[in-house]
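Troubleshooting log. The previous run stalled partway through. Resubmitting the same two chains, unchanged.
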Amino acid sequence: MLLETIKKDFVQYKAQAEQGEFLTLREQAFAEFEKLGFPTTKHEEWKYTNLKSITDKTFQSTCEIKSLVNELFNASIESKLTANFLVFVNGSLVNELSKIIEQDNNIVISSIAAARKNNQTIFNQHFGKYAKVEGEAMNALNTALLSDGAFVFVPKGKTVTHPVVIFNISDASDLNVLAQPRNLIVAEESSSVTLVETYYAVGANASFTNVVTETYAGKNAHVEHYKIQQQGGESYQNNFTQIFQEADTNINHVTLTLDGTMVRNNLHFYMNGEHCNSLLYGLYVTDNKDFVDNHTRVDHAKPNCFSDEKYKGILKDQSTAVFNGKIMVHLDAQKTNAYQRNQNILLSDDATVNTKPQLEIFADDVKCTHGATIGELDEEPMFYLRSRGIPENVARKLLLNAFADDIAEKIKIPELVELLENLIDEKL
Amino acid sequence: MAEEVDIIDQVVGQEYKYGFTTDIEMETAPKGLTEDTIRFISAKKNEPEWMLEYRLKAFKYWQGLTAPNWQNFNYPSVDYQDIIYYAAPKEKIKLDSLDQVDPELLKTFEKLGISLSEQKRLTGVAVDAVFDSVSIATTFKDQLKEKGIIFCSMSEAVHDHPDLVKKYLSSVVPYTDNFFAALNAAVFSDGSFVYIPKGVRCPMELSTYFRINAENTGQFERTLIIADEGSYVSYLEGCTAPMRDENQLHAAVVELIALENAEIKYSTVQNWYPGDKNGKGGIYNFVTKRGICMGDNSKISWTQVETGSAITWKYPSCILKGDNSVGEFFSVAVTNNMQQADTGTKMIHIGKNTKSRIVSKGISAGKSHNTYRGLVKVNKKADKARNYTQCDSMLIGDRSGAHTFPYIEINNKSAMVEHEASTSKIGEDQIFYCNQRGIGTEEAISLIVNGFCREVLNQLPMEFAVEAQKLLAVSLEGSVG
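Second attempt completed without errors. Output:
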């Protein structure tokens, strides 16, 4: 049982941890986790997502690293980019594979462990301030037992020239592994950074990744954040990302889920200033018995903000997809513009889609729309193509690719988009 | 601005039109709910043994339940032992004609604009009037009988048509369905029963008028409508209650059964007392309404205009079991002041080629909250199911809230499901446009709101549509700041 392993891990951690604020924070988080336990389907936010297949297993938090990891890294599409690399295997930094090419010394791209030593003030100022632990069992668990993760600090007015790739591998060659990476991104006023967060898995055993990412965007900052999930084998992932936006910030967040036995993404935006732009895009292509759950929440806490959300899914075989989007327009957040769409194409009779696009509005001068569609491929475009002599299977592929690439193209790294489109094409 | 505040004051000061009470001698059950209460109700109604057994079974089940708390509104927990479960105007003899009905009662319904006297045939609506717990009178009974249509109170049906009641009661909403359904099954007092025989098209609108009068009572009525093969019926219900400071509970159950090729159209204009501007008093309207399209090609259509009640909490649903069956839901929910509404529908697609359409219009003004919650479920075998959902919200004033929680669960690839929702406010330019053409602000708002709700109001039978339009105007008058 996972719960017992976790309890043991925490006792072990506590025995060797140094006293201080950080330990107190983690103890509190653990107490919260113990109080809440793993979420069950009785919990409204977990209605369609059953964690039983995870909680019934045992997972180890540490494991030796195999040469497979190097191969996987070198074969990956992300490694082809000119970028800064932070590579984590089972939540621990691998120095040999990580490389930082950023020239500006004021910009920090390092591991969380290093940041706790070298950038204490910034770390303490932001760590654990955005992803709330109260009532969020999985966040509490991560906070209590996080291993390591990426730390990116961009000071006022700076731009990180090349993307930062946060490369996560779960190596389950020997036994079931549990990794709990934790990332902290701080982009100060008028700074700009592009992040590519990717997930892979190797090995024949099961892996469970429970990750929390906190992003702080200072006034007028610009953050591009791309998440690519390709964990093969028997892999489970719970991903929580909290983005905290000050005034005039621009955030573009794209999530691509291309593989994974069970993936749960929680993406939360909180707009703490006026004139924020928040873009959330997602694509999930599922097959076999895979399960993908995207939970998003956009808090329009201040007036005059804009958010656009579009999640698309293509489902094959016996796969299941869940979408739960919530737009929360707070009291007095006037002149809010919020859009939300969820579109699904079912390619199999055994596939299931559960979608809950939600709006909660407490201000009257707002424009909010949401929509959801579920169905087969549209007949009309199909007919158009067929009538021009394009065979059915080619036409079908063309349409599906167009449907998917619409999201992939929201990524603003052309090399990556091309590689991804090939990947999606293969998957379809 | 000052002028607008004045208008708001005026309207807030406006009295609920139906807030009077009728002074009439009542017979009530003692407060509280025990097995004895149920035996009392059953005995009062002279019910057969099987009915009592059913009630007791439901009561036992209910005792094991706790009130649900997943709703999107707040209400103080209800003390179910502090409610009177049965209240009826005192009457000794069984009534043969309307002449024998207490004139005080007739006056009440006259005041509400409901004509019980059969001379007024012009209205062409057969009415079953339910006063507190019991059905007072049912009009046009004989004419309907000629066609074989049964339209009577539930208590009569239990005696006169036990086979039908036994067969269909609880078949759509079993007492195990939810907390309030169980409670209703245990204590339901009366309600309407309708049976339309094979191939008959009901020649007039059937209608029930519900009136809560007595203090501290809860109203628990049960409506059962059965449309046999190839028949058609249109049914209306209306409700009002007097103004009181304490909250009163209304937990009804409505079951519709449409057999092959049958069609049922069910319309509600709900105007229970909504409480005062501070949210004191008002009716808790917790109702379970569900219809089943049993046979192929059947159709059930719900239309509701919800303007009253302190809290409205209901989801009229359709189970589309027969192939090619159709379910529709049209709703206008208006909340003002401190009112809260959590309403919507469920469309369960089971048969092939089933279609459903949902049009929901929510309007929230004042400090009220309006929630649409709906489920569209397409089962694995429901090939070619089609659903279109549209839910629009309109906010009036910046202290109100609109919420949309649709649930869409699809298990079949040939399903086509679309959901659309939007939120808007009454545009200044729209009001300006009207003002410019000499239409006052108040009138302009009424015009815009009516336009916003048109799609739904069009579904109502004529007489009700007019009433509903007026109701909308009254509920919202002056709420624009």
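Takeaways: The CA atoms of residues 110 and 296 of chain B lie 42 Å apart. Residues 441-457 of chain B form the longest helix (17 residues).
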